[in-house]
Predict the structure.
Amino acid sequence: MIASGGDLPSLKSSHDGVDVDMSRCQDLELPNGDDTAIVVQTSGTTARPKTVPISHSSLLHGTRQISETLMLRPGDICLNGMPLSHMHAIAVNLLASAASGAGVLCLPGFSTGESFHRHLMEVDKFRVQA
């Protein structure tokens, strides 16, 4: 599917002093559901690790199901202790949270005990008040 000029707003944005003219995006080819969205490496628990393409529709469907199952809502915060190269961190912690309007707080690394408990206690500092 090709986005036409009427589908995208003619916006101008500035980030870190760099102006971006969004109207230049009007001729982008949008992906369809069968296109590959992300490629992940399996852990190889049953054999050797494999490279697996995940389609846009599969990622979207999974994101929607996870968001509904966890009953994520705006104002919720997901505490992510997983590396962002892991499929669970991407699909559950980032995408499902974003799709539901929830926030994500990424830990600098995973640890147990006192350090992890301290991170749990700090979540309230980042809670969005509706």
Remarks:
- Confidence is low (pLDDT under 50) at residues 1-15.
